[in-house]
Amino acid sequence: MIKRLSEQEVQLCGKGKCCPIITKIDEDNYEVTDDYGNKIKVKKHELEMVSDAVKTLDVPIISEKLLLG
User: Which of 22, 17, 16 is nearest to 3 (CA)?
Assistant: First the structure.
């Protein structure tokens, strides 16, 4: 579930205590804060690729190395 906290923030709520917060810094930059207060800054296009990365990791390894790009 995605919960909007403000104009610039959303929270990704999982089944337990995992609820990272994504904050929009500007048009191209975002900050992700995890449950422990750790923060990373990422570009918008990197965040957009996260879903594909998770799907890729769920598939058994095959001989190809480059999946996108």
Answer: 22
